[in-house]
Amino acid sequence: MNSNPAEEYVSYFRPEIDAMSGYTPGEQPKVAGLLKLNTNESPYPPSPGVREAFGSFDVARLRLYPDPMAQELREYIGGMFGLPADCVITGNGSDDILNIAIRCFCDSERPAACLDPSYSLYPTLCGLQGTECIRIPLAEDFSLPVDLPARAARANLLLIARPNAPTGNSCSRTILAEICRNFQGIVLIDEAYADFASDNCADFVSRFPNVIVCRTFSKSRNLAGLRFGFALAHPKIIEGLMKMKDSYNVSMLTQVLALASLKDPAYFADCVAKIRLAREMLTLGLYDLGFRAVESETNFLFASPPDGDGRRFFEELRKRNILVRYFPGPVTGKWVRITVGTTESVSRVFLAAREIYREFGQEVYSLDSGRLVP
Amino acid sequence: MNSNPAEEYVSYFRPEIDAMSGYTPGEQPKVAGLLKLNTNESPYPPSPGVREAFGSFDVARLRLYPDPMAQELREYIGGMFGLPADCVITGNGSDDILNIAIRCFCDSERPAACLDPSYSLYPTLCGLQGTECIRIPLAEDFSLPVDLPARAARANLLLIARPNAPTGNSCSRTILAEICRNFQGIVLIDEAYADFASDNCADFVSRFPNVIVCRTFSKSRNLAGLRFGFALAHPKIIEGLMKMKDSYNVSMLTQVLALASLKDPAYFADCVAKIRLAREMLTLGLYDLGFRAVESETNFLFASPPDGDGRRFFEELRKRNILVRYFPGPVTGKWVRITVGTTESVSRVFLAAREIYREFGQEVYSLDSGRLVP
């Protein structure tokens, strides 16, 4: 036995794990007065129904294991979509479900495919599973590329975020249906942001036996801290996914509060409506300032400043105590992703952008007076 | 598109997943008056400190993501063991950590090894990872077999539950240290029940750079519903495990309440002491009835009735509204695993056993009077 075990350290990790870069958590700064618009959290608290369920929860129950099947939740969620409970799986956030799906359908001989740019977790999860991730560039306008079916053909699992992140747009339902119909593998439609969109693909689950539709409570349900997500699919798919999940993957409190949130649809609809209004305001405001912005179906806006320098805009906003998300790269580097919060926070972003890009000389309206100002 | 998509279903699962039956967690029945002694939950509620932290938690915070690193908890836990925070990883229950470890160290060329009987989740997790699980039978008295090092030599990860489940005994610290010193791979010591034992191996983490020690809050901390576990290891090991975990694997409420539980050591010690007392009472009572029982270092008792028919004992107890755990098989089938609850529940088990095995004619003492009764 050595007195300094650190010197004896030998790595027994799978080589893929050692080769991966260290885990970098998203920025969660604790700066007073900082406007945090970098992780697409909701500006609104959980619903009154959630607060009530929390207040009446008997802490003594926590000595027992949660329902490993989350049966009550699965039945309720199924009912919302006109599906039986055995078409539903619940997860510790939808990241849990993405991970389960990649582990179920992918290995060294069964690649996954995803779009680029899209949710950056997909290739990371593929790396952890030791599976190839075929990355298919989006068209220049961030729509689905026409060669997607050809390029994804080798994959066993096709991951499509709809609406997409970080771009915020939704692909065509018709084209996606055509892809699902012809793809020889599983299509996972990640609808993390679908509650903010004008339509969704939940109905694909009853139309196509190879489709998984995934949702989260971290955005539209104002419950990122809770860790809850679910997926809908053919009962045979759910049965297989269930084998992979941790037995007790969803905690008791998460089950109780997620159910309470579902039972409070009016509050939910109200929060979503307010965010959509603020989104419209920010989009039009930035257009007026000469920005490009993708028409968003989410609670964030992907926007490119007049000079096309995403990093500079990110840094200038940071100086003004506004934190947004910047993704370096030849395509994404021209843009920033701004979480849409309240109309107040949107105003702060707009006024900051107006100040930063004043030299570009667009004619802009003051928010206060409505008068034309230089 | 077919009108009945079920008929079109084609499996795209990895063949290993289709071939598996999946892990079956212990029954969670909803029968009134049932004494539930099958999943080793604590009979006591979470600590007053947990209740207090729950009461003062601001539900509005749930709109935000939890700390992905659980930094406050990692520092506190590290402090308890005289280790820095970077020697600690937190999980959504210790099952999460077991899963992470198997995914980090095992693949088709890197088998795992575990004892038999031991925690039945180990081989299940190996199956899901597509890795071989070398199962090494315990000696007849449930101690470590002398050929363990030879039989485990091919493995890259050796999983040892100490105390072991379902047998309840602890292996020798000296022998285990010797194994850790010589094993060419990672030794994961699963200390789910260590708080009920007379010693533990947490100190191995500073002695051996290839040891992971794992703990759970589901048993001794009375918080099975919360889903919290942690592991201690060399910083390099923790760094690698961190890459594999879900970014936000531990929910905000779980982080808050787990920390509160740790800050209430007196209540914790009191619950553990009461369970150890009840365990002693049950063990000696069953000895008197002619049972064999493994001297337990846990909150359960592995006991074999006078006729050696574990299934019959399980079924007779079930008729009397007492649910324990029965594991079929040539070795385990002679035994049942009984969770040790309060002294009251232990009395119910004892009296039921006395009634069931009356015909065996042991001289037994009545609990009520202390008189010798036929």
Description:
The structure is a homodimer of 374-residue chains. Chain A is an alpha/beta fold. Chain A has helices at 5-8, 15-19, 48-55, 71-80, 94-105, 121-129, 148-152, 173-182, 204-207, 235-244, 252-262, 265-288, 310-319, 343-356; strands spanning 35-36, 88-91, 112-116, 133-137, 157-161, 186-190, 211-216, 229-232, 292-293, 300-304, 322-323, 336-339, 364-365, 372-373. Chain A starts with a helix and ends with a strand. Residues 363-374 of chain A have low confidence and may be disordered. At the A-B interface, α1, α3, α5, α10 and α11 of A face α1, α3, α5, α10 and α11 of B.
Please name the defining characteristics of this protein.
7-stranded mixed beta sheet, disordered C terminus, globular, Aspartate Aminotransferase, domain 1, alpha/beta, homodimer, 374 residues, 36% helix, 3-stranded antiparallel beta sheet, Aspartate Aminotransferase, domain 2, 14 helices
The percent range for strand residues of chain A is: 5-15%
CATH class of the largest domain in chain A: Alpha Beta
- Biggest protein-protein interface? A-B, 86 and 91 residues
Named at the architecture level, the CATH assignment of the largest domain in chain A is 3-Layer(aba) Sandwich
The total strand number of chain A stands at 14
What structural category do the secondary elements of chain A indicate? alpha/beta
